[in-house]
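Hello,

I think I submitted the zinc ion job twice by accident. Can you confirm which output corresponds to this input? Input:
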Amino acid sequence: MPIQIDLLLLARWVVPIEPAGIVLENHAIAIRDGDIVDVLPHAEAREHFSANQTADLDEHVLLPGLINLHGHAAMSLMRGLADDLPLMTWLQEHIWPAEAKHVTAAFVRDGTLLAGAELLRGGVTCLNDMYFFPEASIESCQRLGLRLAAGLTVLEFPTNYAADADAYLAKGLEVRDRYRDTALVSFCLAPHAPYTVSDTTFERIATLSEQLNTPVHLHVHETRDEIRDNLKQYGVRPLARLERLGLLSPSLIAVHAVHLDAAEIDLLKHTGSHIAHCPSSNLKLASGIAPTAALQAAGVNIGLGTDSAASNNRLDVWTEMRNAALLAKGASGDATAVNAHQALAMATINGARALGLDRRIGSLAPGKAADLIAVRLDSPELTPCYDVASHLVYAVGREHVSHVWVNGEARVADGQLLGVERRELRQLALSWQNRLAN
Ligand SMILES: [Zn+2]
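Support: Only one job matched these inputs. Its output is below.
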């Protein structure tokens, strides 16, 4: 008797990510109750399963949904507001004043809806976000069906969201209590950066991270100025300070990590810390080029992030994959650094590991959640195709993503976002543009 399932996807190719480095031809994915039941050849799949719905994806490759390991989703409403500036000028003279004037729960809800639409259409099924009013981000991601690791942001200085570090933490923990059992939602403690968070607050966050078994999502070693200022104020570089405060551990997601010496790479490896590598943002703000080849050689786990639409300006993990692979080669002088399969792992399973979600997402394997995407490979710019993994990293763009499922639910079909009308997104974006431009 065939086993009853909800959905059978018959694909030309499957890149499961685990086991590493393989491409399966003419394989199917069987899905039931939101989970992957099996990955197997077409003929066996037809024999073993009876599906309520079957999709023939004869020109497509299936792979896990991409994981954006670092973003500030709501800032999609500030895309292009201030460009061609260094980090601190951009932050202090443009972004922080605009945030002080405009950021409310409604801003975050609308901005996250807009960003989430862009992410899903581009094949991203999970976002690690850091912003204010996390309950508003959760609301929009739930509406879109996008998996979210919501950052509980902490700063020392007041914003529209909270007055001081204690208030940020109290609000964040209250949101965590309210949504901790909600499907598709997890949390990170998100102290903003070494230059905006005090030692006392960092120590408290290290303790909370251990008690709550929650990752810490933090910008660190982004620019040379950050390191210089930290040296001046604390007598040590930021990573040494964080080590002293108990932050370096398998719970840490170190965002950027552009400027590292050999001892710091070793320290990240030995403490089991993870990196969220954001190559486009680092280039645009002229922060520098992260030593990805050396980090990879040392065995540090590296995921990929877009950062915000205000510093990138695309929420496009395909671009990050390509840039990560190209920059690692160019900067190290080694063309074998970050090969296509390694770049794909960065955009999927490595991000899942950093978030502590690798038992559920990041690869296509029985028992994992059916977070997956189909990419169509029959357009002229993708033909011929000798090596699917190579195409995915060096030739494919987000416009080639045709279908997206999260937890087995279709969220994009034939390139169209399901559930939210394009007209609604356009109207809310234009209404915020009117306010921010004035
Ligand atoms: Zn950032």
